[in-house]
Amino acid sequence: MIEPNEPEEQRSASDRRVVLALLFTSGAAALIYEVSWSRQIGLLFGHTVHSAAVVLTCYFVGMAIGSVLAARWVGRVIPLLGYGVAELVVAGWVPWVPRLLDAVEQSSWAAWLSHPEPVVQVLIRWGLAFGLLLPATVGLGASLPFMAEHLSPDRRLAPGRVALAYALNTAGALVGVVLTTAVLMLAVGVRGSGWIAAALSGGCGIVACLMAIRGRAGGQESKSGVESKSEAREVLTGQSVTDSKGSVGFWLALAALSGFGTLGLQVLYTRMFSLVFHNSTYTFGAVLTVFLAGLAIGSAAVARLHRRMSAERLLGIAAGLGAAGVSLSVPVFLGLTNLDSFTFGSTFTAYLVGVFGLVALVVLPPVSVLGAVLPGIWKAAGASGMGGGAVVGWLTAGNALAAALGALLASVVFLPSVGLWPSIVVFSLIFGLIPVVLLVRSGRRLAAVGVVLVLVGLGGVAITAPGRVRTLPPDPRIRILAGWEGAYGLVEVVQVASGNRILRQNLHYGLGSTGRSTVRELRQGHLPLLLHPDPREVLFLGLGTGLTSGAATIHPQVDRIEIVELIPEVVETARFFEPENLGVVGHPKVTIRIDDARHDLLASGKTYDAIISDLFVPWESRAGYLYTVEQFRLARSRLNPGGLFCLWLPLYQLGATELTMIADSFASVFPSTSIWWGQLASDRAMLALIGSEAPLTIDPNRVDATLPLLTDTRNDPERYLDSAETLARLYGGDWPRPAPGTRLNTDEHPRVEFLAPIRQRNDRLLSGERLLDLFDQRFRRLPFHQILDEPKPRDQGIVMYRRRVWQREQLTSGAL
């Protein structure tokens, strides 16, 4: 009697495996979309914390809308068909995202995106991003509720199957992050990654629709539209009773609490690890990957444990242990790192293994437990008798909306106002509310008080454990003069034993200092202004200590100085360097704007005689967009006739491949690209690419008349800017235009951002013998032109040969 049913049971099991595979694949596509779209929109809005929050909020709000729509429609359509159509909608919308972004950037809308009123600006950006992503995000949000309905027999939630489906969907998201970071961005590009995800979504949609149409999905009968609407009203009003103790509205509130805490915690953990990692795209991806792994593990655990304990017990234990684990993760993190810069391994591969290991030890235990919370809430609410799709849809919508809010408040409210460690404790207590409320509802008030006391005690340990750290450099006599914790991390001014002051971010990254680097930082501002025949309007991309931009205040021709700085707190720190930066922050010629440098160039529409781009770490996430062909084109379009664009490059943070790629990209835009040394030292060499419409020449009369004004403001001698001739010594030649087919660094293929971290960890940066070899093989062979406008012609070949001999001597001795 059993044998005739076996093929049908086998087909049903086979179909479930296909369905789970579809959820895994669509989860991978969803994260590829998120990474790709956030980069594309970030180029239009600016890669700022606030812009990222706008995009993330729109993404999750759209998903919440999709979840709500699916919850209302699950009783009207075949669930698998609904899922398939949702995935096809996502795939069909993908081509429109870049087209619409290009249209907005080239229209008058671009100016509105930088409205002077912050509230209006946020509303405009939110509206644009929301409309741009809405069709796709609605489709993404609808997929899980439809699948939950399909996996729930007799229109009753099957918590084990749904939890497993959610675990696989999250695991797919994990794979999507890894694929995008490690492969797709380099192999196919930013927009190309979106096309790959569209192919995945389209494939899932087609397979699901075929299964539904052929009747192989094993779907259940649909409820009437009237019943479905009644369920929706019950959820919204909290009238659908799940058990004798509460309503779906109660579980909806807990789902929102879980979403708020989960995504906010992800933001805080990312910030915590930025204190010890070099903050490349890879390390950010590692934190997100481990976080998703934890959520997937927790969901899978629910799939196995849901029959062994009640929903409330499961939920209370998971949330309580997770809350305790979040606070405990802080002393664990401190004990494993001592807040020292993470330097595990001698290669990039070894370093990345160490990164994943560290993040897993700190993050995986609490997040794995917290991963059981949302599936536990679904299980509890499923006792109402509502269809599985309706339960998952409504509760996931509340979870997604609150998640967007949690991420937004964590980054722009909690971190600046209360700091990193207290913020982590706050989010720990948010999760702690869940077991406390459940215990109170069950009449166990004494146990609830005990949970509160334990969590508060652990929170106190998490807040006090870090103390007041002193790193960079590791000197016990270091003094922290001032510090601010903002949306971009910890910014501090520290004073070391020698009396020099250092501006640092996140403990280990120096943004500039006094002492030996003072002359070099001033030279960064002086050199391009001495090369321009009449610089009157100047833009500096980056403020830092203010020394580089402060140099411009001395030049008598300069009438207007504008500075764009990404980090608001840096403006305050620059006041601690006023003796050296000549009071640039309050100078009457100076205007400072807080914005992403790339976005400011796009939005302001102003033109300048000289644009000077400061040193930016090429492996910092998104910093690579300041080294792309599109950035250079934008800078060229903002130059007045005869203007120049100066791009400073830290050779000690680049490999030969990245330097060549940046220089080729630069030379592909500017008719003339010349090389100028800013610091000749084998371990810390620095040079400038200067782009102009025509080859640069030095006017000896103007330079020699200006130089005394510059040196009179300094006690430290500037030996290499004391005459036109010594200035000319810094000229290294002209970088030729790249040949057709040369690999360039572009917005679509930000290769420098992804290659530089690998080079850095593999110890292949341009310092020591590697720099000298590159100088001999490449720089000595660069073409050149007559740089000094002299009355008597001279043998330029001999002159250039002598300059290069001198430059190599300086590189070897490190004198400059």
Question: Describe it for me?
Answer:
By secondary structure, the protein is α/β, with parallel strands linked by helices. The protein has four domains: 9-235, Growth Hormone, Chain: A (Up-down Bundle); 241-385 and 419-467; 470-513; 516-813, Rossmann fold, CATH 3.40.50.150. 60% of the residues lie in helices and 10% in strands. The protein has 29 helices and 14 strands. It has an eight-stranded mixed beta sheet, sandwiched between helices. Helix 23 links the parallel strand 10 and strand 11 (639-650). Helix 1 (6-45) runs parallel beside helix 4 (96-105), helix 2 (49-73) packs parallel to helix 6 and helix 6 crosses helix 7 (159-187). Residues 1-6 and 217-246 have low confidence and may be disordered.
Keywords:
10% strand; elongated; four-stranded antiparallel sheet; Growth Hormone, Chain: A; 816 residues; disordered N terminus; 14 strands; 29 helices; 4 domains; eight-stranded mixed sheet; alpha/beta; 60% helix
Produce the secondary structure layout.
Blueprint: H1 6-45, H2 49-73, H3 79-93, H4 96-105, H5 109-112, H6 118-151, H7 159-187, H8 190-213, H9 225-237, E1 241-243, E2 246-247, H10 248-273, H11 281-305, H12 311-337, H13 348-370, H14 373-381, H15 388-418, H16 420-441, H17 445-464, E3 479-486, E4 489-495, E5 501-505, E6 509-513, H18 517-531, E7 537-541, H19 547-550, E8 560-565, H20 568-573, H21 578-581, E9 590-594, H22 597-604, E10 608-613, H23 629-637, E11 639-650, H24 656-667, E12 672-679, E13 686-692, H25 700-711, H26 724-729, E14 731-734, H27 751-761, H28 769-777, H29 796-813
Parallel strand pairs: 7-8, 7-10, 8-9, 10-11
Antiparallel strand pairs: 1-2, 3-4, 4-5, 5-6, 11-13, 12-13, 12-14
Helix pairs in contact: 1-2, 1-4, 1-6, 1-7, 1-8, 2-6, 2-15, 3-6, 3-8, 6-7, 6-15, 7-11, 7-14, 10-11, 10-14, 10-15, 10-16, 11-13, 12-13, 12-14, 12-16, 12-17, 14-15, 15-16, 16-17
